[in-house]
Amino acid sequence: MAAAAAPGALGTLQAGRSRLVAACCAPLGPGWRLHRSLTGPRISPVMWARGWVTAAEGAALRRGYSSEVKTEDELRVRYLEEENRGIVVLGINRAYAKNSFSKNLVKMLSKAVDALKSDKKVRTVIVRSEVPGIFCAGADLKERVKMHSSEVGPFVSKIRAVINEIGGTQRLPRAIGMSLAKELIFSARVLDGQEAKAVGLVSHVLEQNQEGDAAYRKALDLAREFLPQGPVAMRVAKLAINQGMEVDLVTGLAIEEACYAQTIPTKDRLEGLLAFKEKRSPRYKGE
Prior knowledge:
4-stranded mixed sheet, globular, disordered N terminus, 11 helices, alpha/beta
């Protein structure tokens, strides 16, 4: 089930929920692991952003796009600078296929995410569309129909490894309850942005701006709020929240305790305490 957004919608990307924009998470980074009894599905370190334009604006803007794009241009990676240093933007650019996930695009995303996970200077990743009026149409069904049946399963698993929010029959009931999830899945109903927000599928619904990138601007504002925070605390908080939501409260609290234990020997924790004592802003280094 996929939900469509109203112009300028911003929210959480959940395959099987809605293909809008997602909340930002700092990369987990190498060396951050819980005991295997507490671990769960892999966590994607991304924020998804989508900008919409009206039908008329979209038609006018799309006329400026070629019907074909070189495969190496289907994903654009931008490292932002100055006050946005630490933010990386992944721009999907498959206008001719409505940014649908092809084998090549999934391969490029996987490679980009793997590189970013090991880069300690990267604090936040935003995934956005470079195509006016479109975020992502899901899987590239024109390519899918040409796949041998033996290829389909591994391809879906590859997408899941990059975007671990896939799994609508399991994630949607956890987000909005079993009854409403069944109603939406069985009917294949398309929701607009306001409806999606009302049932808890998206975080923000925005008025579109003249440039058609209101959602991206909102995602960028959120990313800037995250930048000053301690990288170590962000990583373990992300891990505790994502893992904790999949288990009962008692296990979740054990995960939280295990995550906090990883912050105790860090320099960042001591810097936070010292900054509080000296009444100044902390200068975290992620150590």
